Amino acid sequence: MHMSADDGSDWSSVHELALVYLTLVYNPERGEHPEEAIRSEGQQMIHETLRMWYPEVGNERVARALHEAMLVHISPMREHMLSIAVTSLRQSMPRDQRIAILSDLADLAMNDGLIVPGEVSFIERLAQDWDIERDVP
Fold first, then answer.
1. What is the distance between the alpha carbons of residues 38 and 123, in angstroms, rounded to a whole number?
2. What digits encode the pLDDT tens for the residues 85-132?
3. Which helix (H) or strand (E) holds 29?
4. Burial category of 123 from C-beta neighbours within 10 Å (exposed 0-12, middle 13-18, buried 19 and up)
5. Helix H or strand E segment including 14
6. Is 8 left (phi over 0), alpha (psi -120 to 50) or beta?
7. DSSP code of 131?
8. What confidence tens digit (pLDDT) does each residue in 37-77 have?
C-alpha cells in the first residue's frame, strides 16, 4: 500500500486522500464541530493511514496536508474539492488501491464503535463513483 504522489505542490494526492478520509470522519450526523473531529482519535488514525500510503512524505508534510484538507473541508468549496479529489484519485490509482482505500474508510468508520448511516452511504457512493462497488464484499 504505497502511492507516490506528493510533489510538494500546494495541493497533492496527499491532500486529496486526506479530504476523502476527513469527509468520512467529520460527520455532521454525530453533532461534532469540525475542530473536535480533527482533534479526535480519528485524526491520528488518518495521519497514520496517510503515512502508510505515502511513506516518503515526512510527518510534518502529512500533518500540514491534513490541516489544509480540513480547512477545505470546512469551507464552502468542500463538495467541489471533494468531487475533484474523488475523480483525481480514481484516475491516478489502480483498482486494487481504490479498494484498499474503501477498506481504510470502513476501518475509520468502525474506529469509534459507532457506524452511522452517513458513513455507510459515503463509502457506498465512493465505491460507485470509482466503479468498484461490485468488487467489494
1. 19
2. 999 999 999 999 999 999 999 998 888 777 888 889 999 999 999 999
3. none
4. buried
5. helix 13-25
6. left
7. T
8. 555 667 888 999 999 999 999 999 999 999 999 899 888 99
